[in-house]
Design a protein that fits this description.
12 strands, alpha/beta, 22% strand, globular, 3-stranded mixed beta sheet
Length: 354
């Protein structure tokens, strides 16, 4: 079968392979990118029940030694306690720097497994097998890994590129609608920041039929991210654009203690809030926010949240895009056009309050 393949040339070079049926033959692709003989599969309880046996079985059938660590699903597990349990599991199973971790799951699994790979024994190989739309279009690509702190999301992490990313689109068929909605928040973001054609395509679809063009949508999003990561791997300039809507979104997620709203819905709310403010300030085309909201509604993403935008300012100051006395705010002036606007902290708070 002919799969879509996208090459990333960052500090580590690797491929993202997109198509159906990849999980069952995952070992065939993994053995091409690592010399490891021992594999530790890290996953959550939901994904394990669906795909754990398939991935472990594929690796075992290829002659590899496999162990598996399973933790409770959800953002609340992306914490130091789970990370320490992963480290202990790796020690108990005598995993060495010559071995390889496999992140099987959504964004939480990918983030925490990647961070474990970056830090255990000062670094080892890892492979991403994302099983949610959000992870396939965004979090599995680009090498950002992290855990959350009570004070904010993704505040402890490292840059660690995977050896391979396998995006099996069959996994989308087992996703509850809530997870498909979640992923579409990031898909809309890519259209807003970099691709008017992608956004226009999304304006012709709905949640009911978007899976029909999943390969195409994932390929477009990953290609955009690939280009941005290659230009700015370590998040000093252009890569900040990928965080459109995220500064407010992370504060919204913190407000709900990471359990009351999904990441994609928080991003959608953040994009709507920041675009509405930018339009009022004359920083965005008239009618842009209305167009964005109309697109979000097609994917059940026009979410109303409890906190007003003015209530989120203080929490935003822990955001990674803050540098000294200023913070970079991602503004879309029109569909497909975005920029990082640097504001002094007090100016940013005033911007939100107005």
């Amino acid at each position: 079968m002919e799969y879509k393949r996208i090459k990333v040339k960052a500090s580590g070079q690797y491929e993202i392979i997109i198509g159906d049926g990849l999980i069952g033959s995952s070992a065939d692709y993994i053995k091409e990118v690592t010399k490891a003989q021992n594999f530790a599969v890290i996953t959550d309880d939901t994904v394990d029940s669906l795909y754990g046996e398939k991935v472990c079985g594929s690796l075992s059938a290829a002659g590899f030694n496999v162990c598996k660590f399973v933790f409770p699903h959800g953002e609340a597990s992306k914490c130091s306690d789970t990370l320490l349990k992963i480290y202990s599991f790796l020690c108990l199973n005598h995993i060495s720097r010559a071995d390889c971790l496999v992140a099987l799951g959504g964004g939480v699994v990918g983030d925490i497994t990647g961070y474990a790979a970056a830090t255990f024994l000062r670094g080892m190989d890892f492979v991403q097998i994302p099983t949610t739309l959000l992870a396939q279009v965004d979090s599995s690509v680009g090498g950002k890994t992290a855990i959350d702190l009570p004070e904010g999301k993704n505040l402890v992490g490292a840059f660690k590129q995977p050896k391979l990313v396998l995006c099996d689109t069959d996994t989308l068929d087992t996703l509850p609608e809530e997870f498909l909605i979640d992923g579409m928040g990031e898909v809309v973001k890519y259209g807003m920041i970099k691709s008017a054609p992608l956004f226009e395509l999304l304006e012709t679809r709905t949640l009911d039929n978007i899976k029909e063009i999943a390969d195409n949508v994932i390929e477009q999003c990953v290609s955009i991210k690939r280009d941005v990561v290659e230009a700015d791997e370590f998040d000093k300039g252009e890569r900040m654009l990928l965080n459109f809507g995220h500064t407010l979104a992370h504060s919204i997620e913190q407000y709900y203690n990471y359990t009351g709203i999904t990441h994609g819905k928080a991003v959608a709310a953040g994009m709507r809030m920041i675009t509405g403010l930018a339009e009022k300030k004359g920083m965005a085309e008239s009618g842009l926010c209305e167009r964005l909201v109309s697109c979000l509604e097609r994917y059940k993403l026009n979410v109303q949240v409890e906190p007003e935008v003015s209530q989120l300012g203080e929490a935003c100051l822990n955001d990674k895009k803050r540098s000294g006395g200023s913070i970079s705010v991602i503004i879309c002036s029109d569909v497909g056009k975005s920029a990082a606007v640097k504001m002094p902290v007090d100016g940013f708070l005033k911007f939100l309050n107005e």
